[in-house]
Amino acid sequence: MTQRASGTRGRVAGAVAPVAVVLACALGWEVVARFGGFPPRLLPDLPTVARAFLRLLESGTLAAATGATLARLGAGFALAAVVGVSVGVLMGRYLAVEDTLLPIVSFLYPIPGIAYAPLFVMWFGLGDVPSVLLVGVSASFTIIINAWKGVRAVRPIWLRSAHMMGANERTIFFKVILPGSLPYILTGLRLGLASAWRILVAVEMLMSVQQGLGWLIFGSQQFLNTDVMLATIAVIGAIGMLLEKQLFERVERYTLVRWGMMTA
After folding, report:
1. C-alpha count within 13 angstroms, C-beta hemisphere, residue 74
2. Which pLDDT score is estimated for 115?
3. At the topology level of CATH, where does 43-257 sit?
4. What is the distance between the alpha carbons of residues 131 and 139, in angstroms, rounded to a whole number?
5. Cα 121 from chain centroid?
């Protein structure tokens, strides 16, 4: 009974703490906005930001911008996931592939994705195509590294046991390598999605796209609509958090947790 009560208190504290932090930050922002001496045009209070959010929502501007950004994110992240997992698994499984590609991946991985933007503009022009490609390339390196480490982390005794029992390469991959490396692969995909989300918003400001959340921030900056900028930034943060919570936590729950590889 005591353990149950202690667990309940822990869950309540875990739920209350984030809310308290958010409220404290909101209160601090409001105090600075009202009494900090900043021009309201540059540092609007929270009610002003909320009204800007409602205006964007009612006009359909926010929905159109969000839909365009999510479409680019989906295409770019799908490209990064396919390329990243495939290359990472091949590097981890075959030493020749690892020796060939690891120096290249190690060299390109630390370079910020935004550094490639001018090259992609020269190669592919402006618009959606270079945006999607740049997001895919930038996010793929994180996925490659984690997938490679995941395959390398699979215990050799599992592979030897599968070989001794007559398993072919296909069976070994789907029954041993993939489940054993899945925690690393999911971590790479999660980090890759976060990287893709960040780089996409920045790229939309540079690639002259027709719509998008980054495009909305850039346009607001030109007209000094700080309230619109802050409302859009809040939407970007909320969408990023929801993508992680609704996508990856569910995948982990139905795979890793269900298989007993991690606790809920």
Report:
1. 7
2. 86
3. MetI-like fold (1.10.3720)
4. 12
5. 23
Report the alpha-carbon distance of residue 76 to residue 129 in Å, rounded: 10
pLDDT mean over 109-123 = 86
Nearest Cα to Cα of residue 135 among 84, 64, 66:
84
pTM: 0.81
193 in Cβ contact with 244 (< 8 Å): yes
Return mean pLDDT, the chain: 83
Could you tell me which residues come within 8 angstroms of residue 148 by beta carbon, excluding any fewer than 6 positions away?
87, 88, 89, 91, 92, 98, 102, 105
How many angstroms separate the CA atoms of 235 and 70, rounded?
12
- Whole-angstrom distance, CA of residue 73 vs CA of residue 80: 10
- Residue 48 has a CB neighbour count (10 Å cut-off) of 17
Q: Are 26 and 46 in contact (CB under 8 A)?
A: yes
Tokens representing 236? 């970007």
CB of 204 closer than 8 Å to CB of 250: no
**Residue 1 pLDDT class (50, 70, 90 cuts):** very low
CB–CB of 147/97 below 8 Å?
no
Is residue 17 predicted with pLDDT exceeding 90? Answer: no
- Count of CA atoms in the C-beta half-sphere (13 A) of 221: 9
